[in-house]
Amino acid sequence: MFFLLYALVLAGGKGTRLYPLSRKERPKQFIKFIHNKSFLRNTVDRIKNLVDKDNIYVVTNERYIKKIQEELPEISRSNIFTEPENKETATCIGLSAVKLLKKDSDATMIVLPSDHYIENEKEFIDTLRQGIEVVERKRCLVTMGIVPNRPETGYGYIQMGDKITNYESIYKVERFLEKPNIEVAKDLLSKGNYLFNSGMFVWRADTYLREMNKYLPKMYKAMMEIYEDIGTNKEEETINEKYKMIEGISVDFGIMQKTRKAYVVKANFDWDDLGNFSSLSKFLRSYDGGNNISENVFLEDTENCSVFGDKNLIICFGVKDLIVVDAGNVVLIMDKNRDQELKHLVEELKNKKDVEDYL
């Protein structure tokens, strides 16, 4: 390959759907749950098999710089991009794209969330290689779609269109669907031409910015003004100024659902977006009655519960369909079927007095 690959790891989220395990001072990308390593550490270790460590970048906010340096001591401080405020994924990817473009006019970006679980890393790397190849040939925007193994209401979906000639697993994107209800999810699974939307992407930085110009022209204008001042003593001032004016939007809503250049690679590696306790509970120990538990848990006459313990003994007696989380100074007890509503609950908590220390 005559061009350089760059990995961009998105690590600025708050992870409110995993509250209270995830807090503002220790969001979910820093939680050590799998292989005794943080989600962020696992993400970087995976992509090292394809991208040189000097070309791995992390985008985050000022609050998490120190934690990232502790987790990733091999990543240079100059490879940590910071935003003055969170303005959604289209924006942080745009900021990173102009910074990489300033460094390398042929930069090809692999964009990865920092909170995914992936097994079969060889298949993962092979899938990315397919995406990289089609990006270089067609100057398109590529996303990774995961073959669904269950009807899932917590993920968005991608409908596959025409298969691309000479490629084993690449399709035009027919359309994106937001998170469905359970009946729609079952229907999508039965159709066989829908994939989970993984939120992982491959594209050239210049291609991404051209599509931003088409569909988010105001954001594009701001990014180009930032581009002009990168590397000068005005860079930070310009970023702060432009960010105040930007209306943030996700990359899915802002660009991917509108562009005609969207392709999807059909991926078969084991994958989960560990964005809620239902997905995280799969990594607990299975127990009688359909329960999943951590250490220091005692169950009696209990069914279909997921129990995340800490230092305290947790006893569940005569209950079912609950998520129980002991996170030190906060204990969460929740109906298992309302997992997707936790983010809204945390937003309500922020409006309460005297709970700041618990968030």
From TrEMBL:
Task: Could you list this entry's UniProt keywords, alphabetically sorted.
Answer: GTP-binding, Nucleotide-binding, Nucleotidyltransferase, Transferase
Q: What species does this protein belong to?
A: Clostridium felsineum
Tell me the enzyme class: transferase
**Reactions that this protein is recorded to catalyse:** alpha-D-mannose 1-phosphate + GTP + H(+) = GDP-alpha-D-mannose + diphosphate
Q: Which family does it belong to?
A: Belongs to the mannose-6-phosphate isomerase type 2 family.
- By what name is this protein known? mannose-1-phosphate guanylyltransferase
Q: Extract the InterPro entries matched here.
A: GMPP_N, ManC/GMP-like_b-helix, Mannose-6P_isomerase_type2, NTP_transferase_dom, Nucleotide-diphossugar_trans
GO MF term list: GTP binding; mannose-1-phosphate guanylyltransferase (GTP) activity
Q: Which SUPFAM superfamilies does the UniProt entry name for this protein?
A: Guanosine diphospho-D-mannose pyrophosphorylase/mannose-6-phosphate isomerase linker domain, Nucleotide-diphospho-sugar transferases
Q: Which residues form the Nucleotidyl transferase domain?
A: 7-283
EC numbers for this chain: 2.7.7.13
MannoseP isomerase/GMP-like beta-helix domain location is: 301-349
Instruction: Identify the gene encoding this protein.
Output: algA_1
GO BP annotations listed: GDP-mannose biosynthetic process
